[in-house]
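Help needed: design a sequence for this.
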């Protein structure tokens, strides 16, 4: 997470044609560490009329709920905390718990601005969870599995080891043996390309990222739901936000971008896919798998940062209209066509 915070500062500086942090460490690489040390030593202030128990619990709920989601994410052929059959439902449930902590943070602060920020944040997150869930279910319908590790296996040369070969009947060659980006879901089922775009847009709103950063619109409502927080509790809130960014991007990589599988296919006499991947159960396979999925997730994080420093913030009415009048009907239509696509591929 420390790397992500430093990277956003440097990327935002690059977009705005400035240097960003430069003084602390090499190219400012120690700036985030210095900020963390500063936050640890800052006074922990709790408003006198705040509900102290709930005020203290809110950052912990947000932090724990986000990090619990990493338990079912596959980071390699054999690197996964728990390969549960219903991993997708578990992850969607964990992501939803973030709303509880956000609500408690605003209400327990006994501050009108904090309460307003939490209400706007809750309405935004609950609204955008609907198209986000539909986009996830579109990929699940095509993959016919809720197990994230099995979905990962389907998108590479090891599909046969998952006892599932996706779409072979519709192809002239056995693409499960070719591997590479040709076996990623967005290429095996092009209907998932617009689904992935909806997933990415909705993920920005779920992570409170611009242009959907209404809960933290400091120019409008002071500082949103976290107005009264300081020191380490404030650090937990924003560490949870950056952790949510990485969690959502990892989920996007698993569902749409081949997960831990290599992007290089084995075609003709060139075996790049073989060289840049390894079989499950080997050290090389797990190292390559971890490298590829983290690279894909960081690429999506980079796109989220680019969006933040490129597009202006939406008004709350624009934000809601875009969700309920554009994303929701579009995601419903794409979900229907994804199911139809799956039926035609059998």
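Sure. Designed sequence:
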């Amino acid at each position: 997470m420390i790397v992500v915070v430093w990277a956003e500062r440097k990327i935002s500086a690059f977009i705005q044609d400035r240097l960003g942090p430069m003084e602390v460490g090499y190219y400012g690489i120690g700036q985030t560490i210095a900020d963390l040390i500063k936050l640890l030593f800052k006074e922990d202030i709790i408003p006198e009329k705040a509900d102290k128990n709930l005020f203290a619990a809110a950052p912990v709920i947000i932090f724990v709920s986000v990090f619990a989601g990493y338990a079912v994410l596959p980071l390699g052929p054999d690197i996964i905390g728990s390969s549960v059959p219903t991993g997708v439902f578990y992850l969607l449930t964990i992501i939803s718990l973030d709303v509880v902590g956000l609500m408690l943070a605003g209400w327990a602060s006994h501050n009108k601005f904090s309460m307003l920020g939490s209400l706007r944040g809750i309405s935004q997150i609950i609204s955008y969870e609907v198209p986000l869930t539909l986009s996830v279910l579109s990929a699940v319908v095509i993959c016919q599995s809720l197990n994230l590790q099995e979905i990962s296996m389907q998108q590479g040369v090891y599909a046969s080891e998952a006892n599932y070969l996706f779409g072979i009947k519709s192809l002239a060659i056995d693409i499960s043996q070719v591997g590479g980006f040709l076996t990623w879901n967005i290429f095996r089922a092009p209907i998932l390309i617009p689904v992935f775009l909806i997933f990415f847009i909705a993920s920005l709103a779920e992570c409170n990222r611009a242009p959907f950063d209404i809960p933290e619109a400091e120019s409008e409502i002071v500082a949103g739901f976290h107005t009264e927080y300081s020191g380490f509790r404030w650090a937990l809130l924003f560490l949870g936000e950056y952790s949510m960014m990485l969690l959502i991007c990892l989920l996007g990589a698993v569902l749409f971008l081949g997960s831990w599988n290599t992007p290089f296919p084995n075609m003709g006499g060139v075996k790049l896919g073989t060289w840049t991947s390894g079989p499950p159960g080997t050290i090389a396979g797990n190292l390559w798998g971890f490298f590829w999925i983290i690279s894909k997730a960081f690429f999506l994080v980079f796109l989220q940062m680019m969006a933040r420093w490129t597009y202006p913030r939406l008004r709350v009415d624009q934000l809601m209209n875009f969700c309920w009048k554009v994303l929701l009907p579009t995601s419903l239509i794409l979900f229907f066509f994804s199911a139809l696509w799956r039926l035609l591929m059998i």
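The beta strands are 266-267, 270-271.
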